[in-house]
Design a protein that fits this description.
Strand 1 and strand 2 form a beta hairpin. The chain has a domain of 36 residues. With 112 residues, it is mainly alpha-helical. The chain contains 5 helices and 2 strands.
Length: 112
């Protein structure tokens, strides 16, 4: 993952500990640490995720809070970034929609 953007300062926020960290060099920081660095960690704490992924609010769990952060929401998948970096267009089809996927249309015509 690439660096996040700190919402208060606009500076890049590394999502991994530095290589000279005393206990976890190069490790991913984790959701709680990232939220703490952004100054968004509540005194009561947060669960990592809501039971059954059924969120009840905007800041009900770590996963939902980070999901709503602008830099996380605008992050492109690494596959898309790689394709676009090489000068190509990346176009994802809606999941499981056979009428829009040309591969499915090809195989449907081939079966006849």
């Amino acid at each position: 993952m690439c660096h996040g953007i700190h919402p208060l300062t606009g500076e890049p926020q590394p999502l991994y500990f530095s290589d000279d960290h005393p206990t976890m060099p190069g490790w991913f920081k984790g959701m709680e640490q990232i939220i703490r660095e952004r100054g968004l960690w509540p005194e009561t704490g947060l669960p990592a995720e809501c039971p059954g992924f059924k969120c009840t609010g905007v800041n009900c769990c770590c996963r939902r809070l980070l999901f709503n952060q602008p830099d996380f929401a605008s992050q492109k998948p690494i596959l898309q970034e790689t394709i676009e970096h090489r000068g190509h267009i990346c176009d994802f089809y809606p999941k499981y929609h056979c009428e829009l996927n040309f591969i499915e249309q090809y195989w449907g015509a081939a079966k006849l």
